Amino acid sequence: MTFGIKPTRPETGFGYLMVGNSIPDLVPSSPPIRKVEKFVEKPDLERAEEYLTSGEYFWNSGIFVWKASAILQEMKDCLPELHRGLNQISPFLSLADQSEAIAELYSRIDPVSIDYGVMEKSAHAVMLEADIGWHDVGSWNALDEICDRDEAGNIKSGNLLDLGSQNSILLAGSRVLATAGLRDMVVVDTLDATLVCSKEQAQRVKELAEELKRKGLEEHLIHRTVHRPWGQYTVLEKGEGYKIKRIEVSPGARLSLQLHRQRSEHWVVLSGKARVRIEDRVFDVDPHQSTFIPLAAKNRLENPGPLPLQIIEAQIGEYVEEDDIERFDDDYGRKPW
Question: For the domain with range 1-132, which CATH number is right: 3.90.550.10, 3.40.50.920, 3.40.30.10, 3.40.50.970?
Answer without folding.
Answer: 3.90.550.10
